Amino acid sequence: MDWGLESRMARIIRPSTGRGVMLAVDHGYFMGPTNHLEVPSKTIAPIVDYCDSLMLTRGVLRTSVPASSAVPVVLRVSGGSSIIGKDLSNERITTGMREAVRLNASAVAMSIFVGAAYEQKTLVGLGKLVDEASEVGMPVLAVTAVGKELEKRDARYLSLACRIAAEFGANMVKTYYCEDFEKVVESCPVPIIVAGGPKVSEREALELVHNSVSAGAAGVDMGRNIWQSDRPVPMIKAVRSIVHDNASVDEALELVNSS
Known about the structure:
The protein is an alpha/beta fold. The protein contains 12 helices and 10 strands.
């Protein structure tokens, strides 16, 4: 691995634990002003210092994150369809590699839609993005998006999607947790980051984190289950305690409840 690429990866996944806590605030690129993310700067400011990396678009980065921030950026570079459109899988690259370097990104992220109508477009796009990223030592995070088809979240499908992403050259893969998740991890030769998914109870969210890392995930990328929480700072601290300190669900939940 090239030094620059390895250095950027180490900003996202801590070498000391082999894990990372990513904070997702990129929802607006297809969902618009999501609940509790209407003013991104107000959402991000109280919790940004507790994450290992921040996943967002260039627009939110420029307008809502101080340039003095030391938190590594995972830059969302794909898009093109909205939540009211006909097909969320109709995405393509929307942000170039020169822009990612100019913004001092530590990685770039794009969605792939395996089995969807625009599967080929997103997979070919991933291959091209890896080519461009490799030239500048930039890691690529492939997001195994399922759009509105939540029934695809099983080990067989996710193993297929994650393996394809790795075969196309992705350095990391973001996917969903599922039953038999160990099989997904075993069949993917690059680190897997688990998506936080829809808002659930605090215990359920922390159980997701615990189950994910226990099954071999290299971390989580949580959004709504942190910044839609009534206690976002204690919640992200609780997530960190599981990911980096191997806290139990009950121990992590106590951090939330004692705040």
